[in-house]
């Protein structure tokens, strides 16, 4: 009997990814990993418990943007949307929800800090083109133009539904993580609950639950794909993280010897 490299459960997951991709509008699929399968597809801004009045969220949104813009002027000089991407990158609560076009990268984030003895993790898959056809009546990824200012012009539009957008690739982490965003609208619903939950019914959005039993397969898969902390965070912080991981796993190799 041949020993299979991966379990049937992991192969089933890969088949689900392949099937969703094949059925997508242009074979373009985005992924998002959660280390807790109960987490909703809400952006940081809409995870705040501010009730059901959209004005409360908009006031926080505008205040955070203006404070960041004023306080960062000596550090960065960016246009409105680029500044929003930088805010998201540094952890400010915004309307943006991170996605990646790499399944392997989404697996990395699903496994990161996963308390697999307490809960399942999950991967969300999104067809961004079909989402935009439904939410903004466009068959392409949105790339905001400079004349359409954030947050002023965006708030005037009163956009209700999330849409898929492409950021300027001017950040090493966005490039390394193959990053894209959905920008959450004013409906006060998480993405999976928008359009009365029909995004899932119409196969625009799909959730794959990850059970603890797949952890060895997932780690092996990441190793084969060459995904680690420093690949995704190509800076000194990422380098420090991967070195610490290797120290804990006793995987540090002997130092290279320099020769004259």
Automatic annotation (TrEMBL):
Domain FRG as annotated: residue spans: 25-124
Pfam families listed in its UniProt record: FRG
Please state what the protein is called: FRG domain-containing protein
């Amino acid at each position: 009997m041949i020993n299979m490299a991966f379990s049937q459960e992991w192969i089933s997951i890969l088949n689900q990814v392949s099937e969703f991709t094949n059925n997508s509008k242009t074979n373009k699929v985005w992924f998002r990993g959660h280390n807790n399968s109960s987490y909703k597809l809400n952006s940081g801004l809409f995870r705040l418990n501010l009730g059901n009045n959209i004005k409360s969220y908009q006031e926080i949104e505008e205040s955070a943007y203006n404070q960041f813009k004023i306080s960062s002027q000596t550090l960065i000089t960016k246009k409105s949307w680029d500044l929003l991407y930088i805010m998201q990158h540094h952890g400010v609560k915004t309307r943006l929800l991170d996605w990646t076009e790499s399944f392997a990268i989404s697996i990395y984030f699903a496994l990161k800090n996963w308390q697999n003895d307490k809960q399942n993790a999950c991967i969300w898959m999104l067809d961004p083109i079909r989402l935009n056809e439904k939410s903004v009546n466009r068959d392409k990824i949105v790339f905001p133009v400079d004349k359409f200012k954030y947050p002023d012009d965006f708030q005037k539009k009163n956009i209700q539904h999330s849409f898929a957008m492409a950021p300027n690739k001017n950040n090493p982490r966005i490039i390394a993580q193959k990053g894209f965003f959905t920008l959450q609208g004013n409906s006060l619903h998480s993405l999976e609950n928008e359009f009365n939950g029909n995004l899932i019914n119409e196969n625009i959005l799909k959730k794959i639950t990850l059970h603890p039993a797949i952890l060895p397969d997932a780690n092996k898969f990441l190793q084969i794909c060459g995904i680690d902390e420093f690949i995704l965070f190509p800076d000194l912080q990422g380098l420090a993280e991967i070195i610490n991981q290797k120290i804990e796993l006793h995987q540090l190799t002997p130092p290279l010897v320099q020769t004259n």
